Amino acid sequence: MQLIDQRTWAVQVLLLALALPAHAEGVLRVLTWPGYADPDVVKEFEQRTSSKVEVTFVENDAELWRRFNNNNGADYDVLALNTAELQRYIQQRLVTDINTAGIPNLARQLPRFRQRQSIPGLVHGGKTYAIPYTYSEMGLIYDRKQFSQPPDSISVMWDHRYQGKVIAYNGGVHSFSLASQALGFASPFRIGEQQWPAAVAQLIALRRNVSGFYTGPEESVTMFKERHAALMFANFGSQQVQLLKAAGVSAGYIVPREGALAWLDCWAINRKARDPQLALRWINFLLEDMPGRVLLQRQGLANTTSPSPYFNRNARIVWLEPPESEEKRDRLWLRILAGDRASKVLQP
């Protein structure tokens, strides 16, 4: 009788186990951008950690913010975002400080990325809130056939010799930063009240020199080819260089002497992450050679562990910071695009 009871108990346990859903050792919920978590990269991590990775992709910062804040911020464990955008996540206590001791591959990063205190927005109160992963500087792309020597300054965007042959990005925030650099302002992210008229006049002059404005990298390639452009402000940086070369354009790429605006995408951990240790392992894994090669070879993006093939490592990079007023920049930019005169653009 005792033997029968034991067998019955064993069968019941087995049936209960079969009825329950199968779970990996852990589940990591990732919110990120296309190209940052390709299937083979995810598969390698899952095999190493006996975990399951659930990836959600976004197309812009607004969608990232909306998705992350859905369900009271409980749907994701780790997310990728740029340093400028990171600040409001920190201010609203949505992400947690990171135990860098749990990421030994930080030692593999290039010196400029190991010096996190020198990158605006990464460190607050002595604590690190995000780990650099990939970046792209907004340099200048030029047609080698139309330049005997590569340009070396942002000012070439306003050169009348290339009127109608310049392609620029359709965005108020970055356009005003570009104008600030051309004018030699102290900071491209802090336009003072007395500086706005000069910045507006500079962008009106740019509008008159430009053939067209793009919003996405693929659109920029089409525009560059069809309009036989000589020069383009590369808002998407080396990604556009790779796309142009694939399209048969002999494209050169430089970081101007004034420096290039640059976005730095980092990994941050949700304050409500279900498995912070698995999130640390994810970040650590992505600093290995294989994920780094994927960024370079497939996406045309630099990684933080090997020198970028696209520009001199000593080139000046100006990491993006939140501007003094995104709303004001966008409002004035729309008026500039509409063809308004400076006096009308600057009206309240």
In the CATH hierarchy, the third-tier topology of the largest domain is known as D-Maltodextrin-Binding Protein, domain 2
Give the overall silhouette.
Answer: globular
Category from helices, strands and their pairing: alpha/beta
End-to-end Cα distance, whole Å, is: 91 Å
Looking at the chains present, what oligomeric state does this protein adopt?
single chain
- In CATH, what is the class of the largest domain? Alpha Beta
- The appropriate CATH architecture of the largest domain is 3-Layer(aba) Sandwich
Q: State the fourth-level CATH superfamily of the largest domain.
A: Periplasmic binding protein-like II
Count of separate structural domains: 2
Order of helices and strands: HEHEHEHEHEEEEEHHEHEHEEHHEEHH
**Uncertain runs with pLDDT below 50, 5 residues or more?**
1-24
Q: What's the number of helices?
A: 13
Q: Give me the count of strands.
A: 15
Write down the overall mean pLDDT: 90
Helix amount, in percent? 25-40%
How big a fraction of the residues is strand? Answer: 15-25%
